[in-house]
Amino acid sequence: MTLESDPSGLADDGPLNTVDALVQLSFLIHRIVSAAGGEHDLSVIQIRLLGILRDRQAGMVELGRDLGLDKSSMTGLVGRAQKRGLVERTPSPYDGRAVLVTLTPGGRRLAERCADEIGRRVTALTEGLSDGQRIRLTELAASLVSAPADVSGQAG
Amino acid sequence: MTLESDPSGLADDGPLNTVDALVQLSFLIHRIVSAAGGEHDLSVIQIRLLGILRDRQAGMVELGRDLGLDKSSMTGLVGRAQKRGLVERTPSPYDGRAVLVTLTPGGRRLAERCADEIGRRVTALTEGLSDGQRIRLTELAASLVSAPADVSGQAG
DNA sequence: TATTGTTATACTCTATAACTATA
DNA sequence: TATAGTTATAGAGTATAACAATA
């Protein structure tokens, strides 16, 4: 049963179950974020990188932990962003081994424009909902996001 | 403000707005699907490919349309799945140019095991919800998924 | 002419292993 | 010894352009 993208409507007849509905919604929003980023030549992972750096500077290992990537993957990711002038590497004043990755002014502007674009498109997606529905959806989504988040798959 | 992954909780103090909640939920479920697929050495895009083929066979262009990929990208994607024995290419009886991609029995078994794994993990994510909350969430998510889905970003 | 599919090419993204430099 | 980061390498995934075969 489903788990497919099915962009043009439901191939199925019956209503979606919880798992399918959440997975398909996740794919849909992922596509929206990807398309919004594409307007600024940003991939989803680059958007997430800039999003983290909007709030704080961080080292490579820490960024990798937040993004779920190996430190060696971070080298290329940050390097490409740096080559575009979006971020800078500065030596850490506390640790001679570490670098601090920070957003440049241009990187910050781009991150903001991109976030705005994502906001417009996701807001458009929820336009058909009533205020009450939107509030309930937000509360439910937020509660899942901030839940203990045991993604290990082990029984619990 | 956010749009980051923030796996360990909310760096923010206030409650999430609708856009951030949906985007973060999307990333969370994407991670869950990716981790579940990883148990079977399947990427998210391979999972989606097999998911489509569970319901029907299809040509390369049609698959690319459903997955949002160029036909040239499909060649490699299907080729790797075929090399693993998960799918087969058969010549279309109606169109000499076209091939029909179909799931092998082994591919179908793997797709089912993977879907089960995803089901377990997403279900675990929603374990903290009451039955009523889960029903409302499912209805709201399903309504967004089956909405007109204007992802273009143009004003509407 | 239009469509289906592949190939050639180039790039992003990712991990593993080995390495340097610092702690 | 342990940690931060880079490099080398290999592979998946993706798009563009050019191509062959069929419609």
TrEMBL record, chains A, B:
Domain HTH marR-type: 15-146
Gene3D superfamilies, A to Z: Winged helix-like DNA-binding domain superfamily/Winged helix DNA-binding domain (1.10.10.10)
Top-level taxon of the source organism: Bacteria
InterPro entries: HTH_MarR-typ, MarR/SlyA-like, WH-like_DNA-bd_sf, WH_DNA-bd_sf
Alphabetized PANTHER family for the sequence: HTH-TYPE TRANSCRIPTIONAL REPRESSOR YETL (PTHR33164:SF43), TRANSCRIPTIONAL REGULATOR, MARR FAMILY (PTHR33164)
Identification of the protein by name: MarR family transcriptional regulator
Source organism (scientific name): Streptomyces laculatispora
Organism ancestry: Bacteria, Bacillati, Actinomycetota, Actinomycetes, Kitasatosporales
